[in-house]
Amino acid sequence: MRTGRDYLAAINDDRTIYVDGQRVSAVADHPAFSPIARTIGELFDIAADPASKMTFTAPETGAEANRVYGIPRSREDLTAFRHAAETWARHTHGWVGRSPDHVASFINGFAAHPEAFSAGERDFSENVLAYHRRMQTESPYVSYAIIPPQVSRATTAHAWEGDFVQVGVVSERSDGIVVRGAQMLATGGPVADEILVSCIKPLTDDDADFALSFVVPVAAEGLKLYCRRPFAPAATSSYDYPLTTRYDETDALLVFDDVFIPWEKVFVYRDVAGLRRQFFETGAHVLGNWQSQIRFSVKLQFLAGLARKVAAVNGVDKFPGVVEKLGELASLTSLVESAVLAAEYTAAPDESGLWRPGKRAVYGAMGLQAELYPRALAILRDLVGGGVLQVPSGIEDMRNPETRSDIDRYIYSPGAPAEERIKLFKLVWDAVGSEFGGRHHQYEMFYAGAPFVVKGYAFRNYGFDGPLAEVDEFLASYGVD
Ligand SMILES: Cc1cc2nc3c(=O)[nH]c(=O)nc-3n(C[C@H](O)[C@H](O)[C@H](O)COP(=O)(O)OP(=O)(O)OC[C@H]3O[C@@H](n4cnc5c(N)ncnc54)[C@H](O)[C@@H]3O)c2cc1C
């Protein structure tokens, strides 16, 4: 099994990553990326440790593989996947959205339905199957960029000013294709091994050049990653910013300057309908988003724990109004936990034998996420009051005896001396108020699409036929006469 050390050595390649106008070398050692790279490495070490029970014998290769790269072919497989995804999510307390199990879930879905990749003009099914087998053998960290750059949402790529703003195919060769343009925001991209590049937003027939799906090594010649400001380098210490200093997974715009993609890495080619088939007919979308809800439920539990602890430290946890707020947070959290389990309970095999988590539960929980997460943050902010700002500026204030004596005397709570109290409140601030916390707020609202898109999934996958029939039957049971 791949270890953290293997992973860290692999990403120190010749990739082109820009931060503050400079090209970064050796990402695994760079202050912006080494914290998250170390965390991802820890995930691989956990998976490689037999105690985590995260491995299984993959039927596709006959060899041991990480469970997160397995196609669920029974309810037990789904349970085992959930345990594996939860094990990883617990290590990061849900603060790493694009851990390697996320895109792996999509590829698992692709590989369960290779026929979805042979229905276009060319047959790419063998590419998908081979890539999935390689994932099982090599455990790569694959991130993805499946949204066009935010240029205009009133039109699609073919109508935008300038050629190839969204990544598209500029030329075809006997051994592959050459792609040019940009794609929006690959979270984890700078520290991934490879990136799945595709488009989940609906395209028109005029957008065939942009209707692609392929995987590309981050170090591919001509691929450049423009990162949003990394937060980890500005974090003064892990005591001051305990989340930022471990989990700032970074987001990057991808720019393809005529990048060559060999045919064997292409899954969809100039096929608008093929894009939708790959995400929705294969089960990839529901598998990937079930993984997201597993991770999200772990994060909400962490926030609930924080709120409960803050209330106890401040001595307000017995007040009825506070109990009500904690109760609301408990309800929100348990709804998501329940949806994760309900998806497993209502799962069913499709015609290929892939066990698909129940769509109603997965998309139902997702549909509320853009309200639910901000509400959870609001409760935590409410409970914590100004305590998150009644803290010294940084760890040096704790070390300087001149300032420390006042800190010890005035910033404490019963049962929580200054060092403990400040530690807790700085952790809350990193969750709700730091740049890292703000980015997470945006992430939970948008990672699966804008709220109107996600509610559309909830609408389409709920299955209104039953409730409609029930209402019609009831209406038919009485009348004026
Ligand atoms: C922190 C973060 C991390 C991300 N990581 C990834 C990643 O790893 N991989 C990846 O592929 N993508 C990632 N994304 C991108 C994400 O998928 C997109 O943000 C999401 O799909 C929404 O697209 P958009 O941001 O362009 O918003 P838009 O589509 O521009 O929508 C913004 C708002 O405009 C309005 N709007 C737009 N169109 C319509 C419409 N047709 N009808 C009604 N209202 C409309 C809505 O109010 C909507 O909320 C990430 C985003 C964030 C914020």
Automatic annotation (TrEMBL):
What is the organism of origin for this protein?
Pseudonocardia bannensis
Q: Where does FAD bind?
A: 150-153, 187
List, for all copies, the residue spans of the domain called HpaB/PvcC/4-BUDH C-terminal. Answer: 276-475
Question: Carries keyword Protein transport?
Answer: no
What taxonomic classification does the UniProt entry list for its organism? Bacteria, Bacillati, Actinomycetota, Actinomycetes, Pseudonocardiales
Q: Which InterPro entries match?
A: Acyl-CoA_Oxase/DH_mid-dom_sf, AcylCo_DH-like_C, AcylCoA_DH/oxidase_NM_dom_sf, HpaB/PvcC/4-BUDH, HpaB/PvcC/4-BUDH_C, HpaB/PvcC/4-BUDH_N
User: ATP-binding: present as a keyword of the record?
Assistant: no
Q: Which Pfam families is this protein grouped with?
A: HpaB (PF03241), HpaB_N (PF11794)
Under SUPFAM superfamilies, the record lists: Acyl-CoA dehydrogenase C-terminal domain-like, Acyl-CoA dehydrogenase NM domain-like
Which residues, if any, are the signal sequence?
A: none
| Domain of life from the UniProt record | Bacteria
Cross-referenced Gene3D superfamilies: 4-hydroxybutyryl-coa dehydratase, domain 1, Butyryl-CoA Dehydrogenase, subunit A, domain 2, Butyryl-CoA Dehydrogenase, subunit A, domain 3
List the molecular function annotations (GO) for this entry. Answer: oxidoreductase activity, acting on the CH-CH group of donors
UniProt keyword list = FAD, Flavoprotein, Oxidoreductase
Entry protein name: 4-hydroxyphenylacetate 3-hydroxylase
Q: Provide the HpaB/PvcC/4-BUDH N-terminal domain boundaries.
A: 3-268
